[in-house]
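Sequence, please.
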C-alpha cells in the first residue's frame, strides 16, 4: 500500500461526534450499535450478516437509491406518455436492488479492508475483523446478494442489464482506490451514482444528454459529501495508513475543495432546466437547494469540526432535487 508522500500537516483537533451510537465492546468509538432492531428482532445467527450488509445503517441505501429515482423521475418528465405504473414498478425494483447491492458492496469492501479495519477502534468490532463472520462465510453471503441482484435485473431489458452489470466493475475496484490515490471520492462519484443512468434508461430505453447532465450533477456532488464524512474519521484513516486527502491536508485546504465543489454542483444543477422540460418548481428548488449546499460548505469552512452537519446539508440537497423533479411532473 502506498504511504502518503506529502508532508504531514497539523492534525487539527476534532470534537467527539455528537451522534456516537450505543456501542459494544466497551469502546465509545466503535460503529457497531447494540440493542438496536437487529439485536431485538433478528435471529442470533443472522445478526453478524445483517451488520456486514449495513442493514442497521440505511443511509447508504438511500444514497444509492435516490440517484436511481432521479433518473427515473427525470425520464418520466422528459418522455411523452410513459406509463406511470411502469415507473412505479421500476421505483420499487430500484429500492429492493439498492438495498441488496449496497449490502453486497459493503460486504466486498469489508472483505478487502478486513486487515485495515482490525487496526482501527471504530471498525475493529465489525463482523469480519472481530471474527463474528468467517472469510468463507462473507464470500458465500456476497454470492447470495449478487444472485438476488441478478434476479431483480431479470425484470429489465438487455440494455439495462448490461448497463447495471457494468457498474459491478466500479464496485469491485472502488475499495482499492483509497490505497493508491488521495481522491477515492471522485471514483466513488462514478460508482454510487451509476443508478441515475440506469433509472433514465429504464424509461427511455437508452441514454441522452439530460441523463449525462444529471449524472454530472451527482458526480460532482459526491466528493464534497464524502470528504465531509472523511474529515470526521481522518484519524482512523491515518491509523490504518490510508492516504486519503483529509489525511495529508489540514481542514482549511480540504474545506476549500468542498466549497468549490458545492458551487460547481449548484451551478450544474441549473443546466437541467434548458435540456429537459423542467418547470419553475425544479428551477426554484435548484436555486434554493444549491444555496443551502453552498451555505453548508461555508459553515464547514468556518467550523471544520462540524463535518456531519454539512453531510446533512448534502442529503437534503439530494432528496430535495428528486422531490422537485417529481412535483414538476405533476404541475406541468
Amino acid at each position: 500500500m502506498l504511504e502518503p508522500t506529502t508532508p504531514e500537516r497539523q492534525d487539527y483537533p476534532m470534537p467527539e461526534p455528537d451522534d456516537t451510537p450505543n456501542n459494544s465492546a466497551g469502546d465509545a468509538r466503535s460503529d457497531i450499535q447494540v440493542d438496536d432492531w437487529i439485536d431485538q428482532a433478528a435471529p442470533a445467527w443472522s445478526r453478524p450478516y445483517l451488520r456486514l450488509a449495513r442493514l442497521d445503517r440505511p443511509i447508504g441505501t438511500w444514497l444509492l437509491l435516490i440517484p436511481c429515482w432521479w433518473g427515473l423521475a427525470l425520464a418520466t418528465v422528459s418522455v411523452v406518455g410513459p406509463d406511470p405504473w411502469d415507473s412505479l414498478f421500476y421505483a420499487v425494483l430500484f429500492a429492493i436492488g439498492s438495498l441488496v447491492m449496497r449490502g453486497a458492496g459493503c460486504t466486498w469492501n469489508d472483505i478487502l479492508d478486513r486487515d485495515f479495519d482490525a487496526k482501527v477502534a471504530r471498525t475493529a468490532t465489525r463482523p469480519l475483523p472481530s471474527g463474528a463472520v468467517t472469510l468463507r462465510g462473507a464470500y458465500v453471503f456476497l454470492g447470495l446478494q449478487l444472485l438476488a441482484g441478478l434476479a431483480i435485473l431479470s425484470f429489465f431489458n438487455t440494455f439495462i442489464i448490461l448497463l447495471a452489470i457494468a457498474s459491478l466493475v466500479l464496485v469491485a475496484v472502488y475499495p482499492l482506490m483509497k490505497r493508491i490515490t488521495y481522491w477515492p471520492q471522485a471514483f466513488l462519484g462514478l460508482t454510487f451514482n451509476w443508478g441515475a443512468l440506469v433509472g433514465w434508461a429504464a424509461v427511455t430505453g437508452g441514454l441522452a444528454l439530460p441523463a449525462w447532465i444529471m449524472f454530472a450533477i451527482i458526480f460532482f456532488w459526491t466528493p464534497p459529501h464524502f470528504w465531509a464524512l472523511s474529515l470526521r474519521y481522518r484519524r482512523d484513516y491515518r491509523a490504518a495508513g490510508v492516504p486519503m486527502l483529509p489525511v495529508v491536508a489540514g481542514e482549511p485546504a480540504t474545506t476549500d475543495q468542498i466549497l468549490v465543489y458545492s458551487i460547481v454542483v449548484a451551478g450544474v444543477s441549473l443546466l437541467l432546466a434548458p435540456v429537459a422540460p423542467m418547470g419553475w418548481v425544479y428551477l426554484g428548488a435548484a436555486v434554493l437547494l444549491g444555496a443551502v449546499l453552498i451555505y453548508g460548505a461555508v459553515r464547514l469552512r468556518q467550523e471544520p469540526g462540524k463535518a456531519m452537519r454539512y453531510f446533512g446539508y448534502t442529503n437534503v440537497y439530494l432528496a430535495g432535487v428528486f422531490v422537485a423533479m417529481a412535483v414538476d411532473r405533476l404541475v406541468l
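The chain has one domain: 46-331.
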